[in-house]
Amino acid sequence: MNSWEIFSTHQNNPSLKWIHYFPIYDRYFTQWKNKSLIFLEIGVFQGGSGSIWSKFFGPMATIIGIDINPDCRRFETPFYKIRIGDQSDPRFLQHVIGEFGIPDIVLDDGSHKQDHILASFEFLYPKMHKNSIYMVEDLHTAYWPDYNGGKDNPNTFINKTKGYIDQLHVMHHDIPHDPIMNDTFAIHVYDSITVFEKGAAFKKDHVFSGNIK
């Protein structure tokens, strides 16, 4: 089943998603189905997504949810581990990594505050292995002042991502290299979602085929 089929037939604890997210989930997450992986979702809400992701990825996946609200502990199941803490606190994030290991996939659906999103990304992303996925959703909040957003605010995750795109092209300009983008294979931008793919960077050189004249 794809993510929409699982979501639309889900019962019990609720989950809230934009409908256009589901093809994006399937594009980047399907390759991980029925494999051993560590999936970390920032933001538990009312616990529904843990069940959904457990069904989607299968029994070999370790599904972890983190949230600052201690009431979220009640949503823990044998297949959905929940830890309580602040997503912008590196000590808390390190504790989660120390317990479960470095995640293969991070899905940030947490506070949506821009400084929190950036803090989680700056701590977790450099530690992730090649072929990992880091996805941030609900980034329309990057334009909303209540979430520390604003179109011209240089510190929103949207505007930071524009700078990260420049970093993919670092050999073609003189902007100082930001090591956070080491081993970044690609950055994908959708309405309200950005996806960072880790992997061996392309060898950036010209190659030829045919007869050179």
Mind explaining what this structure looks like?
With 213 residues, the protein is an alpha/beta fold. The chain has a single domain (3-139, 179-198), classed as Vaccinia Virus protein VP39 (Rossmann fold), CATH 3.40.50.150. Helices cover 28% and strands 18% of the residues. The protein is built from six helices and seven strands. It has helices at residues 3-8, 21-29, 48-57, 90-100, 114-124, 157-168, and strands at 37-42, 61-67, 80-84, 105-108, 133-136, 184-190, 193-198. It has a seven-stranded mixed sheet with strand order 3-2-1-4-5-7-6, with helices on both faces. It is globular. The model has no long low-confidence stretch (mean pLDDT 92).
Anisotropy-based shape: globular
Q: Tell me the major beta sheet.
A: 7 strands, mixed
Q: What multimeric state do the chains show?
A: single chain
Note the beta-strand portion: 15-25%
What is CATH's topology name? Rossmann fold
Helix percent reads 25-40%
Distance between the termini: 53 Å
**Uncertain runs with pLDDT below 50, 5 residues or more?**
none
State the total count of DSSP E strands: 7
Helix/strand/pairing category: alpha/beta
**Second-tier CATH architecture:** 3-Layer(aba) Sandwich
